[in-house]
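Late entry, evening session. Most of the bench is empty. Finally got around to the prediction I had been postponing all week. Sequence below, unchanged from the version circulated by S.P.
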Amino acid sequence: MPTFQSKKYVPKSLQNTIAARYRSQLSRHPFLLFGLPFIATMVAGSFFLTPAAALRYERHDRKVKMLNKDEELGLKQIKGRKVFDINEEYYRLAAKDLDDWDNKRVKRLKGEGDGVL
């Protein structure tokens, strides 16, 4: 006869509780009592969190909106900037004399190599 019993001692007060019945049934039906509620929680959470994520992106879209060309030009004029014209910039750069220039060395910082061997 073995010295210790193979069954665990469970007091009578804990044998008829819902937790004790669940624990005993869990070993027989693990997917039904653990896996299925877990998967159902994940799917339900996905459905409940989808509208919350949509609200987040809608709020962000309200803050950042596309401007049409007139509004964009109006904003540039309010800031006091000159409106950029590509043709004007091209002719301004074309009018410069690019053949008359001198190569000037930049003054180096103290301790920095000057690149001369």
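Two things to note before I forget:
The mean pLDDT is 82.
The radius of gyration is 39 Å.
Will write this up properly tomorrow.
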